[in-house]
Amino acid sequence: MDLAQLTTPQLLLLLTVALPGAAFLGLAIAWLLGWTGSERVISRVTGLTYVATTLSAFTLFARMLGQSEPSVTVPLGPWFEVPTYSFPLTLFVDPLSMPLVLATSVLIGLVGTFAQRYLHREKGFLRFFLLLHLFGFGSVLVFSAGSYDLIICGWELVGITSVMLIAFFQDRRRPVENAIRVFAIYRSADAGLLIGVFLLHHAAGSAMFSELFQGPWPGQALTGLDGASATAIGLLFLFAGAGKAAQVPFSGWLPRAMEGPTPSSAIFYGAISVHAGAYLLLRSEPILRASSVAAWAVIAIGAVTAIVGGLSGRAAADVKTALAQASLAQLGLIFVEIGLGLTWLALLHISGHMVIRTLQFLRAPSVLRDYHRIHAVAEGRIASDELYYEAMLPAGLRAWLYRLASDRGHLDTILDRFFIGPLLALARLLADLERRRVSPFETPRPSARLAPVLGDPNGRAEGGHHG
Amino acid sequence: MSATTADSTAHGGVEPVPSLRDAIDHAAHLLPSQGPLNAFVHHNTLHALEEMPFEDAVVEAYHTRGAQPYMSEAAYRRAIEAHRIRVEDIEAVLAKEPNPSILGDNQLDRGSLRSAILRHRVGDFSVANIGWHLEEGDVRRRLNRDLDDFTKRRLINDAVARAGESKDPEAAAAQEIFAAARLRVASAEPARPVDPVRPRDGILAAFGLDLDEVVHPVLIHLCATFLDQGQAFWPMPGRDQGLLRAARRLLALPGAIYPEALTGLGEEMRRQEREGLTALEVIERVFGIFGIQPEEMESVIGAELLALPGWPGMIRHLEQKPAAAPHERVPFSLDDYLALRLTLMKVGAASVAAKHDVAPVSRIWRVAVSRPNSAEAARQAAAARLAETAQVCGLTASELANLDERSMARLLRELEEFDHLERRRILHLAYERRHERRILSPLAQHRRSIAPAPPPKPVAQVFFCIDDREESIRRHLEEVDPEIETLAVAGFFGVAIDYQGLDDVQGSPLCPVVVTPQHAIHEQPSAAHQKEHRVRQSRRKLWAQLAYGSFLSSRTLVRGWFSAAFLGLLSVFPLAARILAPRPYGKLRRWLNSQFLPAPRTELTMMRDDARGRAIAEGLQVGFTTQEKVDCVESVLGPVGLHERFARLVILLGHGSTSLNNPLEAAYNCGACGGRRGGPNARLFAALANRPNVREGLAARGIKIPADTWFIGGYHDTCSGDIELADLDRVPVSHRPDLERVTRSFREAQAWEAHERVRRFDAAPKGSDPYRSLRHVEERSEHLAEPLPEYGHCTNAVTIVGRRAITRGLFLDRRAFLVSYDAAFDPDDENLAKILSAAVPVCAGIALEYYFSAVDNERYGCGTKLPHNVVGLLGVMNGASSDLRTGLARQMIEIHEPLRGLYVIETTPERFLNAAKRNAEVLRLLENRWVRLATMDRDTGEMQVYRDGVFEPYTHSEDEPLGQAPTSADWFQGKSDHLGLAQITRTVQPMQVGELVGAAG
User: Fold this and answer.
1) B641 contacts B825 by C-beta, under 8 angstroms
2) pTM: predicted TM-score of the whole model, two decimal places
3) Taking residues A118-122, what's their average pLDDT?
4) CA dist A299 → A356, B384, B478 (Å)
5) What integer best gives the mean pLDDT of chain A?
6) Where are the alpha helices (DSSP H) in B11-53?
7) A256 and B879: CB-CB below 8 Å?
8) Which of A72, B318, B442, B792 is the most buried (most CB within 10 A)?
9) Which residues of A touch B327 (CB under 8 A)?
10) Mean pLDDT score of chain B, rounded to an integer?
11) Is the Cα torsion angle B109, B110, B115, B118 positive or negative in sign?
């Protein structure tokens, strides 16, 4: 057997997915056995893992270039089987996912190398790399899943690692608060993906791409779904994708996610995690094409996000918020492109955006020097006060828009007041009802400490001390 | 809304404006005074408290700001284990304290009580942890682990006598003593609830809503956009009218959605705007609504400011020094900030009142804030403390039980007074005492071994800055070529200038912050190179437009779409190159720069418009008169004692530090140049000293520079180790061989210096090749991911003012600022007075900033660099919304020993006092113990130490021997900790070696 036979495309794909997962498992098991993690070993493992992952991804890519209908499928066997139904798990790459798998392995490798130095002597060094490898596994899994079922697995890993890296500085209060908020939003949006996949199983009898979509991407034919189910599923996927990609109305979480160390901001919110939402929609392109309602909804959400994000980014005075807003605005444009069916453009846009934003996030601390230099060359301000688009608007509208932009479209407040508030009120109402049913004579007494925070209508000032 | 009624009823009855003004101005002193990050001036973090003795000031700050005064007890404990603090140090410190008797018959006095507690590892019992200590800890399980066997036996025997034999006699003894102690602690006061200082405290206690959490995000965002120096594409509208009006107009706009706790904000802003209230009127009104009495005003304002100190600190700094704003001078006003903050607080409080249907606002927050406590836990904690103290003092359970009431009361009071603050104070003094002995004893030994005769004329004299980081390269340079002599003066080299380089838009001051430059110096292309200059500038402009249009503007929507979709993939190349091969990438960039940007030959404007060139530009004189030039040069050469004996080459090196991706880069620059790079000063000084008419003027004042002496200015980068010399094309041909020899020595010294620095870096290559180390430090300065490009002043601890003779050949571990000064040339102590007035505040500022950032990195420092986020081109936040972080980052203080600077002045106490009394600040720092001081007689070497107002002779013993090694590398190779002083034998007696002298020519 020669090397070419050994490195079949199937094996290469399997390697690309499994290597980051193996690195995670190896480090995690060693850690559970009491190993405290020497930086040198962790760095070595990380380096080897991503060199190998990148190599196998590139080889796979080269192999695929030669094929007429370039796609690779690796059946992993069924998850479970009953006589009439089965859940097969397969890995699958095609011209849509291959560039993203490549970009993921290259970028995680680079950011991992960056982080080895950046996090030198930091307490959470091992924790960071554990999460990075798990994230790498999750994101490659998202991009190389052969069915929506498997996408969910990767999707959840990406989500949970993202949340845990926002809370990286776990002894400070603010990062943990923001991480919990992001977690809540992720979970809400994930519901869209879950329900969508249930519906898909129900309506089409499968969530496998190979059974749902016929032909090469893009322009695949959709089988087994009627218009109504396509609309419902499309909208649910949009909900899920919008949450992951920080589109309106979820956009508020992205600046909050900047609490972690700079490299994790770069890899999650500049590069990979936020683009998973766009990938989901791009993958579901036949479904969107089957439902103009869903397609137009994608366009609308994307356009609104692009405008709000673009405006907010222009008004942001700190570099990480500016970059976060820029990211979500470009993602808005990508959503519009997807909705319009400009699939190749969207793919190009995603890949380019991943790379340039990663570089910008990593270079974010340099902004001080960059701006001073540019100011110096331009003999003062390069963008003078008169040279911005908004100056064309009438003064009243301009101030109003600025207000909107500087509060990021009031999106966080809207969520708080009109969704989270009522939801909590409902939950409390139900809790009260239940308590009353259990013991009808006990008067409900909500926790005095939480009552004012949660906006309890009965929470009168007790004006005393709380233990 | 109930706020409206409260508003109208509570208004009136406030103090007249002047006292509010005073209250604000007074409270403003609490704010950090760090300016924008493009320049970084180290200063005493507690500068506002310098009127108090150091030990009182740090405790005061502990109470007002909740910041730690000293290192943690655990850190001192580790120092004891590492013999960094010795028992004799603790005893010596305690011997200087008042020492009343506690138990009768001299059984126990305060000194021996404290000594016993500090020498043994005694638990820290509090209401919060006593439960754990009793259930899980050792309180009832074993005796103090550091007890000697004799005491242990005595305690156990007593317990056996009281309670009989038991299976675990030690546990039984511990229980007996605790039980006895518990009986003697009749009452322990539980902590009483405290009155809220500001409305937020009371509202938090009563309603569970933290108004800071509601108000800060809004306030931070408004401050950031208001202060922004050009980071946002879209500046805040109306900010030229001040923060209050701009914010008010924005918030008053209809159609906004506010958080629930801020409903009514728009309405409030509209009303303020309608009535046209000024900032002070707004503050008065809010105080009226909250019912704050005039005598409370200052404390309320202080507490409000300290709840978020960074942003108002920056506003205050810029209000007082608008010129410090790098690009945008908007009307900075602390009054505006306070008015806005208090308005937001008031709206929040009013909405709480409305929601809970309670009124008036002035009353609802007056709720005592209780602290978790219980009387029993307090008694148990006191008992545990008493029990363990009894053990370490050798008191048995019986003795404890039988102690008379008055002794018992005294003992308990003593224990209460010896709280963690007092314990840490004593430990810190012991820590500093050991440091003092580790410096002064070897210094005295080294002084005795030096030859009295002056060395012959050197090949070259090299001036460095007094900076502690230059100590090592000076030493290595002298080791590499013992015929080179090094000297040090403050790195602005006596020329306080406003300098505008070839590529700068405006001048910036290159001198200590306390000095205001009177002279503007411009770097200009020489006549023959005008064309290169034009090409350079137009290409730079092109580059800037490209960079701005593609990279930075990719954040905008439309241009961003283009650059992301079509150019984005290209950025994988710089991304990969920067991360995987930083040094080659840096070289490539420099090579490209040199290919595309011609570097014209330049000169400094003072050379052209000479004596009569007094054009007034922005109030600055362009260039110096001959008289001024002579003064400048004399101010450097005079004090160091370089009046004759000039070498053929005199080189001056200013310094700075280059690192990538580092918002705090300026903090590594030259402190004597106001946190900037000192290269231009050195270059200017050399140009001045080379002028014949200046030399004539100097000769008239007794400084005789021979005709064959040539001055060269240059720049030393303390991060990459690079040395660049300026105007080399002007060096006479006759001096080329000398220059060649010196540059060769520089190269070698750079490598050894890098090698010495690298021993501190965990990630650096270990080995003995100095050139490998040099490559490593070069990479650090070029690496995008490097949060620790160099250690800065991290190891500073000492300042030595004196001749090089007393430090030459002495390994000082980069821990000493060295100021060249020769008392023999200073009959009336005038020079010393000048040196002190600059060196004491500057070096003390550095030492104290490092001290505070190290003892409490979260409060005084800015925490770890990793989540930092540059905002407004002014400072850094954590994440997307936090206070502006001030002070030094954790990476900068990692290996720092927090110490007050120890000054060693080579003169007599009388002459020192004669010089010091001319500067009030120096005296204040000295008398309030913000610095430590010793003198060393120039002629006899006798040392005296200043303690509490008097000089006392230093009793030198052999407890800290002076190490010896042939070279520095032999001393430090393979070690990474702080090292003791050592004599480098190769440099000490250099002049017996004849082989090098011949080559000098």
Assistant:
1) yes
2) 0.92
3) 91
4) 24, 69, 72
5) 87
6) 17-27
7) yes
8) B792
9) 375, 380-381
10) 89
11) positive
Contact B232 A255 (CB under 8 A): no
Specify whether the CB–CB gap between A210 and A146 falls below 8 A. yes
Nearest CA in chain B to A260: B867
pLDDT 10s digits, B912-937: 999 999 999 999 999 999 999 999 99
State which residue of chain B sits closest to A318, comparing Cα positions: B871
**In angstroms, rounded to a whole number, what is the distance separating the alpha carbons of residues B38 and B506?**
14
H or E element: which one contains B382? helix B375-392
For residues A389 and B452, give the distance between their C-alpha atoms in angstroms, rounded to a whole number: 75
Distance from CA of B374 to the nearest CA of A (A): 11
Residues 6+ positions from B182 with CB-CB distance below 8 Å: B379, B380, B383, B387
Radius of gyration of chain B (CA): 32
Q: Classify A323 as helix, strand or coil.
A: helix
User: Mean per-residue pLDDT for B810-825?
Assistant: 94
Contacts of A394 (CB under 8 A, 6+ apart): none
- The answer, for B255 touching chain A at a CB cutoff of 8 Å, is yes
Residue-wise pLDDT tens digits, A45-59: 999 999 999 999 999
**Domain definitions of chain A by residue range:** 3-362, 368-406, 411-454
Give the lowest-confidence range in A4-13, A127-136, B426-435, B464-473: A4-13
Residue with tokens 């392109």: A285
User: Mind listing the pLDDT tens digit for each residue in B820-860?
Assistant: 999 999 999 999 999 998 889 889 999 999 999 999 999 99
**pLDDT band at A65, cuts 50/70/90?**
confident
What span, in angstroms and rounded, lies between the C-alpha atoms of B683 and B667? 22
- B209: closest CA of chain A, how far (Å): 6
Q: Are B883 and B311 in contact (CB under 8 A)?
A: yes
Interface test with A, best of B207, B369, B580 (most A CBs within 10 A): B207
Q: Is B421 on the interface with A (CB under 8 A)?
A: no
User: Across the beta sheet with B982-984, what order do the strands follow?
Assistant: B810-811, B982-984, B963-965
d(CA A72, CA A98): 10
Q: Is A107 helix (H, G, I), strand (E, B) or coil?
A: helix
Q: Choose the closest CB to B564 out of A330, A367, A369.
A: A330
Question: What is the value of ipTM here, to two decimals?
Answer: 0.89
Cβ-based contacts under 8 A for chains A and B: 312
Phi, psi angles (nearest 5°) of residue A420: -70, -45
